[in-house]
């Protein structure tokens, strides 16, 4: 029996590579932007950055309750990730980049819809001009 909970073993810290942390940050950022929580998430992360280690320890403390809701190893990777302030900054940057990508896609879709709407009305009014007078 281990003294540490699942995912909190000291060997797990060595198995976390920067690529895994970046992948987790990108997935978290995608979910945050998907739910339109970009601004609150960035404000929250910036406000907890000085005490990120304490926040990670609170998540370890809350592990028995959270494990009832979350059945994933990503939770423990997230706990280990936010212990370091640099990773909190990386998560903030990932959220900003994802938001920029989604905003650009939305802008292009809006331009495309506007273009289609204009062509619809042009075709509609051309039909009226082509008909002979009665």
Low-confidence runs: none
Q: What is the alpha-carbon Rg in Å? A: 24 Å
- Structural class comes to mainly alpha
Measure the end-to-end span: 93 Å
Helix run count: 7
Q: In total, how many beta strands? A: 0
User: What is the overall pLDDT average?
Assistant: 83
Q: Approximately how much beta-strand content do the residues carry?
A: under 5%
H and E string: HHHHHHH
Q: What is the overall silhouette?
A: elongated
**Into how many domains do the coordinates divide?**
1
Helix content: over 70%
Query: How many strands, which pairing sense, and closed or not: the largest β-sheet?
Result: none
Structural features, described:
The protein has 134 residues and is mostly helical. The chain has one domain. Helices cover 79% and strands 0% of the residues. The chain has seven helices and no strands. Helix 2 crosses helix 7, helix 3 runs antiparallel to helix 7 and helix 4 packs antiparallel against helix 6.
Topology:
Elements: H1 10-15, H2 18-34, H3 38-48, H4 52-61, H5 63-69, H6 73-81, H7 85-130
Helix pairs in contact: 2-7, 3-7, 4-6
């Amino acid at each position: 029996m281990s003294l540490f909970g699942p995912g909190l073993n000291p060997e797990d810290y060595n198995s976390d590579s920067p690529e895994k942390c970046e992948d987790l940050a990108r997935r978290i950022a995608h979910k945050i932007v998907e739910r339109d929580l970009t601004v609150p998430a960035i404000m929250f992360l910036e406000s907890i950055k000085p005490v990120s280690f304490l926040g990670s320890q609170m998540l370890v403390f809350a592990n028995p309750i959270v494990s009832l809701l979350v059945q994933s190893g990503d939770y423990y990777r997230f706990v280990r990730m936010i212990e370091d302030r640099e990773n909190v900054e990386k998560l903030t940057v990932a959220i900003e980049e994802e938001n920029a990508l989604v905003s650009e896609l939305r802008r292009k879709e809006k331009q495309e819809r506007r273009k289609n709407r204009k062509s619809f009305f042009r075709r509609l009014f051309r039909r009226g001009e082509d008909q002979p007078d009665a």
